[in-house]
Amino acid sequence: MRPTLFVTGHVPANRVGAFERLHELAPIELALYGGPHQHGAPPGAPPAVPHRLVSQREVGRLVASGDHRAVIVGTGGRIALPAAWRAARASATPFIFWAALWRTPRTAAHLAALPLMRRIYREAAVVVTYGEHVSAYVRSHGATRVIVARQAVDNAFWSAPAAPRSDPRFAALFVGRGAREKGLTVALEAWRAAAIDGTFTVAGEHGPLPAGVVDAGVADPVRLRNFYAACDVLVVPSIASRRFIEPWGLVVNEAMNQATAIIASSAVGAAAGGLVRDGRNGLVVPAGDAGALARALTALAGDRERCAALGAAGREDVGAYTHDAWARAFADAIERAATAESIGSVEP
């Protein structure tokens, strides 16, 4: 059987298992074109998956070769997506679009590309989405053949026993870059306003932090797992900007595996997409509202039993978000696209 060509910039470490599982279910070949935003990707690609390093301009030639059963392309890369789309149409290669956006960025480039994107949504053999939030968006732009491949991490790794907690005080954690859209400034303002007797830890690349905030720096996965286990709540306060809205936020999946409660903003894809459920496994607050975030922190700090119950529910809920489920959704999309089966809309 001919492999499916999977075009993407890189394979982050947290997706290696997902791509390897997909290759087991439906043979793929990775075409990796790199890019400035590697998001922790290791050099090369999953060793168990055939791959080649290409320029974005080479993607169209690969698709047009006729050597592949279908082609999958995501939203990254200014040249790769339209090149693959046009080559797929010319060569009658089934085209599967992997969609992450759930709101149209308001940049000149994104607005100019919107007519093409609407055509891709309408005419793609299948659109595979990050979650229900993305599915709703692509349907609003004309997609009718939609499958959800839920965002996942290596649950076995992130749920493994971590170092025992040493400080019994209420502990909150932020993991991510210090960029404005990640909302660190909002989180720091909320923590200061809440005036909780506890600890606030920041892990990741960022600028100077206020006195009293623990700077964990860039943590390796084992150390980060220990931070999740030692904290009561993960704060994910992302903010939508003209050019960005958080597609998902895999730190949510990671933390839930350690039974850490979540406070997420309404601009976090994992909340809009159904993993973080307000009052079930976390709290959802309006994006950019430091006062609402402070009140959520105060509420959980004042009711540790409720906080623990939210964390326990999160550990249960994230169990359905696996690499295997992600891979099976893509394998289903490949089969349906390659056999020209009419799928309507499929939500796992």
Describe this entry's structure for a reader:
By secondary structure, the chain is an alpha/beta fold. It folds into 2 domains: 4-152 and 322-346, Rossmann fold (3-Layer(aba) Sandwich), CATH 3.40.50; 155-320, 3-Layer(aba) Sandwich (Rossmann fold), CATH 3.40.50.2000. 38% of the residues lie in helices and 17% in strands. It has 13 helices and 14 strands. It has helices spanning 16-25, 56-64, 80-91, 108-123, 132-140, 155-158, 184-194, 221-230, 251-256, 269-272, 290-301, 304-317, 323-338; strands at 4-8, 28-32, 51-53, 71-74, 95-99, 126-129, 146-148, 170-175, 198-203, 214-217, 233-236, 261-265, 282-285, 345-346. The protein has an 8-stranded parallel β-sheet with strand order 3-2-1-4-5-6-7-14, with helices on both faces. Helix 3 links the parallel strand 4 and strand 5. The longest helix has 16 residues, at 108-123. The radius of gyration is 21 Å and the shape is elongated. The protein starts with a strand and ends with a strand. The relative contact order is 0.14.
